[in-house]
Write a structure and sequence with these properties.
Bound molecules: ligand 9MR
Helix content: 40-55%
Keywords: Carbohydrate metabolism, Glycosidase, Hydrolase, Polysaccharide degradation, Signal, Xylan degradation
Oligomer: single chain
Strand order of the largest sheet: 1-2-3-4-5-6-8-9
Number of strands: 10
Structural class: alpha/beta
EC number: 3.2.1.8
GO biological process, one term: xylan catabolic process
CATH superfamily: Glycosidases
Enzyme class: hydrolase
CATH architecture: Alpha-Beta Barrel
Radius of gyration: 20 Å
Order of helices and strands: HHHEHHEHHEHHEHHEHEEHEHEHEH
GO molecular function, one term: endo-1,4-beta-xylanase activity
Shape: globular
């Protein structure tokens, strides 16, 4: 992937490049407090080797959701992305890919039929460019977070089709050349592997053929963006991921510009780690598709004192490690994104009562074992994968 080489080359100035691990150095020599040469570094060092994005192999991006909109609007804090300086700093330092958590969904971008609002999305894309990060666009065709004017409107099929075509053409076109991957469709199948023809307005009113149309429109608007099918609960080989496998084959056979399949990976310590993740990604890879992990987090039952136990944190770290390792093991999986990096802004406690601590940093940005697991897995892969 050319853009990432470019980023590495432009940001690694002569002075800072000296901080990167020299090729051939033993990865085990560096940890949070020790540099590659074994010298002690302060815990809050700004050194580049101390960051996820610089630990990653070349051509592999490590991403996060950019907090804002959605559940955040009901919390007693201001918009994280625009208001929390520390949040922005960590976002820029640690990650090489960003995904707007809500700010590119229909209800934000398209509040009225004849009006688009790109203010927040623009700010995120500008921020990403300033910081040498790629952007994952999320999302164009979904059953959720659609504006009321759309869901409750009384449109003919021809009008609805035109509304979708206009939205995709306008949004993808606006960011043409600036968005690395788009989740063209999100969550179009249910757990049994049936298309969500009841709750998804597009599938219900326009039929399954609209999926291919959405990809074609997106591709016309930005021929360079990689276009993905994205969903949760498709980590393993199961009825739902089988449905994606069949759909992918069909779309490819029909010459539809489908480029990738991605799994969200919202995991929980209450369930075993989805051990078939690598195998599942690999079968899509074998179709010639890119693959990605797009929204990983690992929630747990939070003890009454509010603090996860050491054993929980260790187990969580192991889930993150395995999730990342599965992606790294598949050649075409070169984008791994976590759904937020600090518990302070995680969606999990808002949606799952009694559960939380799902991200890799605490509320005050202290790194958990999960953060270190990601770092060391990336670092090891830098040597294996190059
Ligand atoms: O994290 C998002 C949260 O802020 C919103 O309130 C919520 C509304 O559905 O959506 C969350 O993000 C979802 C993502 O867009 C699609 N996959 C599942 C994510 C977690 O629910």
């Amino acid at each position: 992937m050319q853009p990432i080489r470019f980023v590495t080359a432009t940001l690694a100035t002569a002075a800072t490049a000296a901080l990167l691990l020299p090729l051939g150095a033993a990865p085990a020599a560096a940890d949070r407090h020790h540099g590659p040469d074994g010298r002690h570094t302060p815990p809050h060092s700004n050194a580049k080797f101390d960051r996820l994005r610089w630990a990653a192999p070349e051509d592999f991006v490590i991403g996060t959701a950019v907090a804002g909109g959605g559940h955040h609007l009901e919390q007693d804090y201001p918009d994280p992305f625009t208001s929390d300086g520390r949040y922005r700093r960590v976002l820029a330092q640690q990650f090489s890919s960003v995904s707007p958590e809500n700010q590119m969904k229909w209800e934000y971008l398209h509040p009225e039929r004849d009006r688009y609002d790109f203010a927040m999305a623009d700010r995120i894309v500008d921020f990403a460019e300033r910081n040498g990060q790629v952007v994952r666009g999320h999302t164009l065709l979904w059953h959720s977070q659609n504006p009321a004017w759309l869901e409750e409107g009384d449109f003919t099929d021809a009008e609805l089709r035109e509304i979708l075509r206009d939205h995709i053409t306008t949004v993808v076109g606006r960011y043409s050349g600036r968005i690395h991957q788009w989740d063209v469709t999100n969550e179009i199948f249910d757990e049994a592997g049936n298309l969500r023809t009841e709750d998804n307005i597009w599938l219900r009113e326009l039929g399954p053929g609209v999926i291919a149309d959405a990809f074609r429109w997106a591709h016309e608007a930005d021929p360079h963006a990689e276009l993905f099918l994205n969903d949760y609960g498709v980590e393993e080989v199961n009825a739902k991921s089988d449905a994606y496998y069949e759909l992918s084959q069909q779309l490819l056979a029909d010459g539809v510009p489908l480029h990738g399949f991605s799994t969200q990976a919202h995991l929980s310590l209450n369930y075993p780690f989805p051990a078939g993740l690598e195998e599942n990604l690999r079968r899509f890879d074998d179709l010639g598709l890119a693959t990605a992990v797009t929204e990983m987090d690992v929630r747990m039952n939070v003890p009454e004192n509010g603090r996860p136990t050491a054993a929980q944190l260790r187990e969580q770290a192991d889930y993150y490690r395995q999730g990342l390792a599965a992606c790294l093991a598949v050649e075409g999986c070169d984008s791994f994104t976590i759904w937020g990096f600090t518990d302070k802004y995680s969606w999990v406690p808002v949606f799952f009562e009694g559960e939380g601590s799902a991200t890799v940093m605490t509320d005050d940005y202290t790194r958990k074992p999960a953060y270190h697991a990601l770092w060391s897995t990336l670092k090891r892969a830098e040597y294996d994968r190059g």
